[in-house]
Amino acid sequence: WKEIKERINNIGPFPRYIFSNSPLYLQQYYEVKSSLNCITERTISEYIDILRGDGEWNDKSPSQDLLKVYRLAIGNDDFPRIAAFNNELNKSILVRVMEICRAPYLKFFFTDRGVLIAEHFEKLGVIAFTDKDFVTALGKELKIIQPPKGRVSQKSVLQRRDLITYASNGYDLFPTGINDVSRRIEYNMLYRPSISNFPLVDGFYFVKSEEERVTMIGIQTTTAKSHETTVTAVIEFNRYLKNCFSDWTDVSKEMSWEIIYIQPYDTDERRQIKKWQGCTLNESGNYNLEQQGITAKFWNEKVNQYQVNLSLGMAVRLVEALEGVRKEEKLSKIEDLIQIRRQEVHQEVNFN
Predict the structure, then answer these.
(1) Inter-residue contact 277 to 299 (CB < 8 Å)
(2) A Pfam family this protein belongs to (predicted)?
C-alpha cells in the first residue's frame, strides 16, 4: 500500500499505471516530471491560473498531464473546473512556480515543499478579507456548521451576490484602550485587534444590506481541530465593541453574527472543524451565572458558524491578496505587515 500511495502522489490515481509493471509506470512518471519542467517564465501565468482554479483546459498544453476536469455544484448550477490530480501534484506545481517566479511573498508563506507556514497564515490571513476576489471565491467553499437544538441553518452573507460582502474600505486597527475615543461603526471596514489576546476572533467587519440588516463577520484563522469559546470571551468581546462604537448598543440589537473558521488547505481530515463550536460557562470570573446564561443562550440561538478548509488555490489567492495590500501600502516586503502590527500594539501599550 505504501508504494501504491507513493505512485498515486507522483502521477495521479490511474490504475493502468500504478498497478502496472515498472516500465509503464516510469513512462508516466517521467511525462509528469516533463510537464512540471515545462513551467517556465513564459508559461508561468497558465500554471498560476491552474493553482487558483481559474485555468481552462488546453489539450495542447503540457499541463494536461497534470490535470483533471471536475464538476462544481453551487446551488442548482453546475460549473466545469480543472485541478491537479491530487494535492501532491498541486504542491509540485506550486514549488516549481516559486522556483521560476522567485516571488518572496510566496516563499514567506510556503515551505520549499509547498506546505503553508501556519504561523504566518494565522498572523496575516485575516487581511485577505479586504480582497474582493478572495472573499468571492471563499464564499463558494464555505461549509455550514450545523447549529444545535435543531435550528435551521442558513447560508452565509458572504454567498450573497446583491451585497458588497468583503471589507471594501480596507482595514484599521481596532483600539482596545479604555480611554480611546468612541466612533461610529464603519461598514465594510476590517477591524484588526491591537492586542494578541483579543477575545473570540482575529478580526471582524460589518456588512449592511439595502434593508438595513446588519451582519457581523467574525474571522478566526486556526490550525486546531476545535476552537470553542467561553461566555467570558463573548461578554468581553461585546464590552470592547460597546466601548469603541458609540452606536453599538442600538445596532447590535438586531445584528446577525457569523463566525468563520478558516483552516489551512493541508489540514488533516481528523483536525478539520466540523461540529458546532460551543460557548462554555465559567465557574469563576467577573460575571454572574445569570449573565453567563443569557450569553450562552444567545450563542446557541443567534450565532451562525461556517468552516472552510482552504484549497491550495484559495491559499494562493490569500497570499496574492496580501501581496496586493503590501503594494498598496508601499511596504518593501510582505512580512512588514506583521511588523506594522507590532509597532501599533507597542504604541498603544505606551499610550495607555
Answers:
(1) no
(2) RHSP
Prediction pTM value: 0.83
* Cell numbers that stand for 32 in this block: 509528469
Write the secondary structure of 4-34 as one string of H (helix), E (strand) and C (coil). HHHHHHHHCCCHHHHCCCHHHHHHHHHHHHH
Q: Give me the count of residues in the chain.
A: 352
Q: What is the DSSP letter of 46?
A: H
Burial 242-266 (b: 16+ CB within 10 A, else e): ebbbeebeebbeebebbbbbbbbbb
Unique residue bearing C-alpha cell 487581511 = 127
Cα(43)–Cα(26) distance, integer angstroms: 25
Phi, psi of 260 (to 5 degrees): -115, 120
SS3 227: coil
| Beta strands 256-263 and 171-174, pairing class | unpaired
317 touches 262 (CB < 8 A): no
CA distance 30 to 43: 20
Q: How many helices (H) and strands (E) does the chain have?
A: 13, 11
The answer to whether 153 and 213 have CB atoms below 8 angstroms apart is no
Side-chain-facing half-sphere of 146: CA atoms under 13 Å = 5
Q: Label the pairing between strands 203-208 and 214-221.
A: antiparallel
How far is residue 211's CA from residue 223's CA, in Å, rounded to a whole number? 36
Q: What is the pLDDT of residues 282-341, one digit of tens each?
A: 776 678 888 899 999 999 999 999 999 888 888 888 888 998 988 988 788 887 887 655
